[in-house]
Amino acid sequence: MFVARSIAADHKDLIHDVSYDFHGRRMATCSSDQSVKVWDKSENGEWHCTASWKTHSGSVWRVTWAHPEFGQVLASCSFDRTAAVWEEIVGESNDKQRGLSHWIKRTTLVDSRTSVTDVKFAPKHMGLMLTTCSADGVVRIYEAPDVMNLSQWSLQHEISCKLSCSCISWNPSSSRAHPAMFAVGSDDSNVTYGGKVQIYEYNENTRKYAKAETLMTVTDAVHDIAFAPNLGRSFHVLAIATKDVRIFKLVPMRKESTSTGPTKFEVQIVAQFDNHNSQVWRVSWNITSTLLASSGDDGCVRLWKANYMDNWKCTGILKGDGSPLTGSSGQPTAMSTVVGSSVQTSQNALNGMSAGRIGKRAPFAPPLRQLTSPKINQHPAYY
Description:
By secondary structure, the chain is mainly beta. Helices cover about 0% and strands about 40% of the residues. The protein contains no helices and 24 strands. The strands form six sheets. A four-stranded antiparallel sheet has the order 1-2-3-4, with no helix packed on it. It has a four-stranded antiparallel sheet with strand order 5-6-7-8, with no helix packed on it. The chain has a four-stranded antiparallel sheet with strand order 9-10-11-12, with no helix packed on it. Strand 21 and strand 22 form a beta hairpin. The C terminus is likely disordered. Keywords: Cell cycle, Cell division, Centromere, Chromosome partition, Kinetochore, Lysosome, Mitosis, mRNA transport, Nuclear pore complex, Nucleus, Protein transport, Repeat, Translocation, Transport, WD repeat. This is SEH1 like nucleoporin.
């Protein structure tokens, strides 16, 4: 079983996102109260709020950490049509706040004309790059040319996706065989338009991103999307949170040596689960891509794992109050089959939570309503 703990977050409105840093020792939360809070994990495993500040003039939808090699850096996005980059600095020796850290705004990105719905840093091997997507259907990719000066960001790419964008995910693969790639999901409610997930790939010849694939079978609103860590695979695995949980395999087709267009993929759907019986709000992979967690309006986090035949099954159901749930076999679902010290959750997680580690004590947060459903957490928390 697992232990559920609550954290008195003290946000004044709904919490929309929770994000862990690279090491899982810090987390950030954002809310409709227009603020971001940063939490640090103490030696005894308790979470303490070490910073809280007003970040935007509207609801803050998402918050995310940069890789620590770039410092302690956060990005946030909001209904106020902006994204912002924040950096933690430590007070100088002659400062009244000597040794104390505080967060300062390095830049505000104001290119969007509508709500900025997601913000993600690109994989670190690409440098310090930040991607946003907006309700106007535009994905924007920014780069900080000088990582020592985070007040300077240049808009490198502007990609129109035609449909309102709700979420983005970078393919984390650093293989030279795989060009830079990201997926974008749409929450457009018109089911007559298929292809709510689009895959874009960087073309070295044109130096632009081009659409490589559209998942036409996804016709319902997409709330979250997550590429699995690659670990040397020749193909890509993509999880999608819509009215159910779906896992796709994207197998690159062999390219002609003279071809200059984007890679063509053979798209296979390897799993589809409607166990939540409701909208699914977040999907998140562990660090080895062997375990997927999803959260939905049923108030549960469900864990999915594939066997050696690549058949995916539910291996655990987590409820926010820590009570056991009965699985389809009639037996209480136990965590012992999936939780171990070697299993670690991915960086960004279930409706809000970016991942911490799945440890011997279960680390999953309880579900939040709608925009604030649960995510993988170091220690469960109620908001």
